[in-house]
Each structure stands twice: as C-alpha cells, then as structure tokens.
Amino acid sequence: MPNLILASASPRRKELLAQLGVPFQVLPAEVTEYEAHDADPREMVRHNAALKADWIAARHPDAVVLGAGTTVFVGTTVLNKPRDAVDAWAMLRMLGGRTHTVFTGLAVRRASDGLKFDGGATSEVTFKPLTDVIIEEYLRHVHTLDKAGGYGIQERPDLIIAGYTGSLSNIVGLPLDETKQILTLAGLTR
Length: 190
Prior knowledge:
seven-stranded mixed beta sheet; Maf protein; alpha/beta
C-alpha cells in the first residue's frame, strides 16, 4: 500500500497529484464539509482540508494523508459547488466580467507520529463578460455541479476566461507546487 492517501473523491485532484510521481491511493473521507456562503473562504477550505485528512488519518495512522478543499469567492460572496443548474447559471452570471479568487486549503496528517502540516494557495481568475447565450453554451458542454464556482477552467476556457494569475493547478483543484512542498516536509518527495 502506498504511504500516501489522497482523502478526496475529486478526479481532478487525483489526476493532478499523479503528476508529482508519488505513489498514492484514493480514499474519500466520509465527512460533511462546512460550506457557509458567509464564512471566511480561506478558513472554510482549510477547515475542510483538515477535516478530511484527520478523518482518514484516524483510520490509517501510519499513512501520510493529504486533504484539500477549494472554493471560489468574489468580494465577500463564497461560491462553492452549485446545488443545481439554476445555481450554476447564477454563479456564472455573477462571475461574468469580474475577477474572483480561488483558494485551496491543504492539510497533511500522519496520526502515528502526530505529523501535521497545513498550507494553501491563492489564484485569481478574470472572466469575460458573459451573455445568456454564452452561459447556455458553456453549460451545454461542461458538467459544472461538481466544481466550486460552477466552472472548470480546463473545460472550454475560450468561452468564459479572459485570464488568470497564480497557479493554474490551484484553479483546477490542487496547487502542485504547494502540494509538493508540503509532501517534501512530510518526507515523501525531494
């Protein structure tokens, strides 16, 4: 069994983590994430990352467990995963023509020796102005219900994205540079 467990069901996180070349297995944590629309977004995702990592580490004490949580926020409004297509539409409408922040919280745990590292990454994304026609087109091509903010930057960016700053992998769901740093601290990478 690999020494690293990814405590996430996200296929995007699995694909991104595989790029680091560290063997791992995926075991989604059976937890209820905190997702208040008025919460401090950075604290919320740090909390959720730790919640997932702690839950899996308690059940696999000798493994290094990586938990992550990502959210999108614009101003003081937090945009987690949309509840339905109407919610996704409203999120895209809100993001159109604006710059928003994507934050991912990271938590690494190993229960057997109390190993505990936390981190995170921030990126900014600017959307093109969006018409109803563009939103309809985007929603026709992209499954948005499992994505914070109701969009995936890696899917049909030509329709919605004007530009971004920071880590692209963070916007997708797992900041690779920060993840590598935290796994190096845990002794898994160099």
